[in-house]
Amino acid sequence: MLKKVTTLLSVLISAALIASCGPSVNPQLKKKTDNLFSTAQTKNYGVSRAFKAPMKYAVGQYVVHGMTEGSGNRSITKTSIVGKEGNGWVMEFYSLNSKQEAVVQMLIVGLDKAAQTGNTDGIEIQRIKIKDEKGQVQSFEGPMLSMMKNLYKNSLSSLDVQTGTFLTGSAVTVPAGVFTGTYTIKSKVKLFGKTYTGTGWYHSSVPINGVVKSVSDDDKTTMVLLDFGTKGAVSLFD
Question: Residues with Cβ < 8 Å from 17, sequence gap 6 or more?
Fold first, then answer.
């Protein structure tokens, strides 16, 4: 269920960010991206309890991941929980690479129930806003919001996630620190006719998704944890 939800959110975020995509490399954004990758922490996180799912969601949690592609291109994503409205979580997804910088805010209902039951059918996106590097905010309402909801449903129907069993892993060193006793799992994701396979390392100290590191089987894509916290996340829209 965890892999399914995070994959679907990635699809939605990518679609929402198309409108703010820059045409060429921005030297300032490239430098900002590289600087975030070069920041390393020396803190150690002890042996993890048996990892089955990340800790319960709470306002203030955040994770920052850095992705490197085989071409050498780098990107940053920060996922934060900045509020709670009724049964929904207000989540923000900050995206940075050498061409663009933007943040997407979503009000998502049904995540808690999906985590308990494994059924993602009840997940609903009720609000979407985008803020680009110029500070301009675009809200998805009416037909545009309906389009994003339909994209979610179409993604859900075409998505097939196959995972193995969580196994005890070794210590993993990433810019966010040293994580002892990670749990590793192999997965195969089929989406819109394409298949992606890889291995992920998880730790119970990491909120939201638990991901410390992820590597594709073809070694063309690597994602590492750059920073995280269980409190302190604030909205970039305020």
Answer: 95, 100, 102, 104, 130
Q: Hey, what are 101's tokens?
A: 């910088």
Residue 205 three-state SS:
coil
In angstroms, rounded to a whole number, what is the distance separating the alpha carbons of residues 159 and 206? 26
pLDDT value, residue 23: 64
Does 12 or 90 have the greater pLDDT score? 90
Q: Which residues on adjacent β-strands are paired with residue 83? A: 90
Residue 27 forms part of a structural domain: yes
In a domain, 236, yes or no: no
Q: 98 φ, ψ to 5°?
A: -70, -10
User: What's the predicted TM-score (pTM) here?
Assistant: 0.87
Phi, psi angles (nearest 5°) of residue 144: -65, -40
Backbone angles phi, psi at 154, to 5 degrees: -65, -40
Quick one: tokens of 137? 């905010």
Residue 99 has a pLDDT of: 87
Q: Which two tokens stand for residue 113?
A: 């129930």
Domain of 181 in residue numbering reads as 2-229
- Candidates 159, 176, 215, 127; CA nearest to 10 is 159
What the block records as the tokens of 181 is 């006793």
In a domain, 235, yes or no: no
pLDDT of residue 175: 96
Query: What is the four-CA torsion angle of 188, 191, 194, 196, rounded to 10 degrees?
Result: -30
The chain-wide mean pLDDT, for the chain, equals 83
